[in-house]
Amino acid sequence: MLTATSGRVRDLRVLRLSGATPRQVLLTLAAETCCVVTLGAVLGLAVAAPALFGMAQGLRRELGLPVELSVAWPWVAGVVAGCLLLATAAAVLPARAALRRMRRA
Question: What is the pTM of this model?
Answer without folding.
Answer: 0.83
